[in-house]
Amino acid sequence: MHRYKAIKFLGDGTYGSVWKALNIDDNEFVAVKKIKQKYYTWEECMNLREVKPLQKLKHPHIVRLKEVVRENNELFFVFECMEFNLYQAMKDLNVPITESRIRSWCFQIFQALDNMHSNGYFHRDMKPENLLVTGDLVKVADFGFVREVHSEPPYTDYVSTRWYRAPEVLLRSRSYGPAIDMWAMGAIMAELFSLQPLFPGESEVDEIYKICNVIGSPSHHIWAEGMELAAAMNFRFPKFPQADLSCLLPTASSDAIDLILALCSWSPERRPSASEALQHPLFKRQYQSLRVLSPQSAPHVKTCLTQVEQMCTWKNVRDMNQDHVQDSSQELSTELSIGCGATEKQWRPLESGMKNLKVCRGIKGTVGAHKGTCPAQAQHSMNPLVVSSLISPMSVLKHH
């Protein structure tokens, strides 16, 4: 981590803290997530739920994992840096967001979800804080709760922030899928119009109450499975008719209202998929001009495994705003870093004491093939793990 200088603390979560940092090799800003848990083997790191999908998913609207670094048994994820998230955008605005901007943002997010779901993953934690923005560009981030579509249930019932949690999750269903991401998007879309959460429940029961108050109470005809889930919990839905969403969201067009109501359907089977949402009349102009980037035409990202002698540490994140220097009393630790796009086969040498490890172009030095750790005298002539950002400078949101 000696190549990165911490600039600003961005936030702290259950599993780690996030910092804005500067890559001193190329003066590029990045976001560094320092994981709280210690990791003593590289295999542990690569088996993390957050790593695998980000290695597989390559999409313009999914945040790019640039590098994974393990140093002194501490784990760091290095991501591309975005300016702010949708929650911050809504909080800082004093005027409603235009529908054209909401349409653009949501169309990008649905493209990301379509890519994610079609590749066998669903996010499980869609909320404004996990949607990152730079100018007109939006990207989905934070894959800590991601699951494979075809993974075996039961799943944990605690997913997503309560206000964006789908009814089947609130009712403790142990088997659910990508439709929970679509429910969350319906709530997010509505919040973008009103700048207020659509279902601001103070508890799980109150959350269901708030949902009934907006979309009306379910019935066996509307959602038989949900009625069974509620009965199993001895829960009775409050009786409410469907509210007039156009009164709650006066700046939203009829097409926007129609899509929000479809996404916020009680039954997961009635919600449109991400692919179907992209074809909704709300996005007619965007969909007609959509050009999907094929894997063959996508920029090639070089990937390598390198054993590098780390010259400094990010152990104390509170001191990260200062230049890091090596503690002479601390034993140097030989660690590994991996760039995005690496396949599972490229991790195999790590299990056999670095035998047969090949150093890719751009790295000068020697690597020992010993059973123990062997410091490599390595020097980066060009960092093959870093791809320069294509993000344009942030435009002033309020001026759009």
What descriptive keywords fit this protein?
alpha+beta; Prot_kinase_dom; Transferase(Phosphotransferase), domain 1; single chain; globular; 27% helix; 2 domains; protein serine/threonine kinase activity; 400 residues; 14 strands; Phosphorylase Kinase, domain 1
Give a written overview of the molecule.
- This protein is of the alpha+beta class and 400 residues long.
- The protein folds into 2 domains: 4-81 and 295-380, 2-Layer Sandwich (Phosphorylase Kinase, domain 1); 84-289, Transferase(Phosphotransferase), domain 1.
- Helix content is 27%, strand content 17%.
- It contains 12 helices and 14 strands.
- It has helices at 42-46, 51-56, 86-92, 99-118, 167-170, 179-194, 204-215, 220-232, 245-248, 254-263, 274-278, 284-288; strands spanning 4-12, 16-23, 28-35, 65-71, 74-80, 84-85, 121-122, 131-134, 137-140, 147-148, 305-309, 334-339, 363-364, 379-380.
- A hairpin with a 2-residue loop joins β8 (131-134) and β9.
- α6 packs antiparallel against α10.
- It is globular and about 60 Å long.
